[in-house]
Write a structure and sequence with these properties.
The complex is a heterodimer of chains A (about 290) and B (about 210). Chain A is mainly beta. Chain A is about 10% helix and about 30% strand. Chain B is α+β, with helices and mostly antiparallel strands. The chains are: A mainly beta (about 290), B alpha+beta (about 210). Chain B: InterPro entries: CT_C_D, Cyclophilin-like_dom_sf, PxpB.
């Protein structure tokens, strides 16, 4: 076994390998997948000198612990959390040197949902259709981390960035999602369309990498039944028969039969990925660019 | 042709039939191949084609609204043969819907040439058309929590094969050992939009025929 590897000491509730995903295969039923908070994943890669497409780890609420077999540089970003090396606190959102055999502990998120861990050289599990991302809808890519698993690391490429700490947006206290209407807003009553963009919602605990589910006012339709299956985009706000909107995130299905009332701007999706259950949500109607 | 904007950089082009959707899909693939259309995803579906990742959706929208779509070129390429044991748990229900004897289901199903109208639901899951409309069947009232991989199934106007075990509401008429999806294979998907398909009875169903 090569020294360039990372042993998983504590996998956490759900920690997955993520990169920029596998767009371009939707016509085969393959979701795009990839890091939900893409700017955070790009930032931690930059901090350790990786290319932007290098694979990182995405944690969910309670972090993870890792033991590199050789000295590496790491950076933890996204959801703010306590980070330690062999029990000693080290900076968050900054490059940190971890000696061979030391334990990097990524603590529970102080706020937000998903922390990102970049390791110099990147995680180099076998790619599937050009991506190392775990796709929880289709099962493509590596399985979520388990205690005792070993992840191969690539060769470090460049000296890491010389910064003390990199600024990142704080996880949202209120999530404002800018939406453009349609393509199926005509399937809903005018009151439902008004309700959707004027009344408050909250992030449901049933949210995951597939979709951010909403608790809040039910949206009434003027047309019953299902659409013939049609293609779905990232950020689509699909309304299933229970009338509660679901914002599609990276592992969303490529086609669907429930009407899409609106589409969330891509720039709002990183904040959506960090919104904990219970976070107030407002959908703000904007014009298409 | 109804062109609906989807977010800032996608269009959903809606037509009135599956045949038109396939013709539109073929035309859009032709434009991409010749370099006149730049787009990240072209996703055909039952009555629509989604174009995702467009630089200038408005310009394409106005052009498509006025465009005439040429009829789809004749389907070329080899026919993929999928061996099937017609032993599914819903054979009797499907026979009842079709108004035929149970043994006839295999004969009718295997006697039809299909093609993949579109994919979705799971990597490598194709929605196959070819059966006449009188053989449409409803989904099961209660979906199964686990349909085994390789299940050959019917719902609405479509036939499909489950690439892996998953929940599902389609009527199961048979089983195949064909590998629908293998990410280490090139191409990973046995079936992609436009692929021609035939089901070939094997095992007990063949004994019934003979």
């Amino acid at each position: 076994m090569t020294d360039r590897a990372l042993a998983v000491v504590r996998a956490g509730a759900l920690t997955t390998v993520q990169d920029r995903g596998r767009p371009g295969h939707a016509h085969l039923g393959v979701p795009r997948s990839g890091a939900l908070d893409a700017p955070a994943a790009a930032l931690v890669n930059r901090l350790v000198g990786n290319r932007p497409e290098a694979a990182v780890l995405e944690t969910t609420l309670d972090g993870c612990a890792l033991r590199p077999r050789s000295a590496v540089t790491v950076a933890v970003g996204g959801a703010p959390c306590r980070v330690t090396v062999d029990g000693r606190p080290v900076p968050w959102a900054a490059p940190v040197d971890v000696p061979a055999g030391a334990v990097l502990d990524v603590g529970a998120a102080d706020s937000g949902v998903r922390s990102y861990v970049a390791v110099s050289g990147g995680i180099v599990v076998e790619p599937v259709l050009g991506s190392r991302s775990t796709d929880l809808l289709s099962g493509l890519g590596p399985p979520p981390l388990t205690d005792g698993a070993v992840l191969p690391l690539g060769r470090p490429r460049a000296p890491h960035a010389r910064v003390d700490v990199a600024p990142q947006p704080a996880p949202p206290a209120e999530l404002v999602l800018r939406v453009t209407p349609g393509p199926r807003d005509d399937w809903f009553t005018p009151e439902a369309v008004r309700t959707f963009t004027s009344r408050p919602y909250r992030v449901s605990p049933a949210s995951n990498r597939i979709g951010l589910r909403m608790d809040g006012p039910v949206l009434q339709r003027v047309r019953p039944g299902e659409l013939p299956s049609e293609g779905m985009v990232l950020g689509a706000v699909q309304v299933p028969p229970d009338g509660r909107p679901v914002v599609f995130l990276a592992d969303h299905p490529t086609t669907g039969g429930y009407p899409v009332i609106a589409v969330v701007r891509a720039a709002c999706l990183a904040a959506a990925a960090q919104a904990v259950p219970g976070t107030p949500v407002r959908f703000l109607a904007v014009r298409r660019r | 042709m109804n062109v609906l904007p989807v977010g800032d950089d996608a269009l959903l082009v809606e037509v009135s039939s599956g045949d038109e959707a396939e013709a539109l899909h073929a035309e859009l693939l032709r434009r991409r191949a010749e370099g006149s259309l730049t787009v990240r995803e072209i996703v055909p579906a039952a009555r629509t084609v989604l174009l995702d990742g467009l630089a200038d959706p408005d310009r394409l929208a106005s052009e498509l609204t006025a465009a005439e779509v040429p009829p789809a070129p004749p389907r070329a390429g080899d026919v993929v043969e999928i061996p099937v044991r017609y032993d599914g748990p819903d054979l009797a229900d499907v026979a009842a819907h079709w108004g035929v004897a149970q043994e006839e289901v295999a004969r009718i199903h295997a006697g039809t040439e299909y093609h993949v109208a579109f994919c979705g639901f799971a990597p490598g899951f194709g929605y196959l058309t070819g059966l006449p409309a009188r053989y449409d069947v409803p989904r099961r009232a209660t979906p199964r929590t686990a349909v085994p991989a390789g299940s050959v199934a019917l719902a609405g106007p479509y036939t499909g094969v489950y690439p892996r075990s998953s929940p599902g509401g389609w009527q199961l008429i048979g089983t195949t050992d064909a590998v629908l999806w293998d990410h280490t294979r090139v191409p990973a998907a046995l079936l992609s939009p436009g692929t021609r398909v035939r089901f070939v009875p094997v095992g007990p169903a063949r004994a019934v025929e003979a």
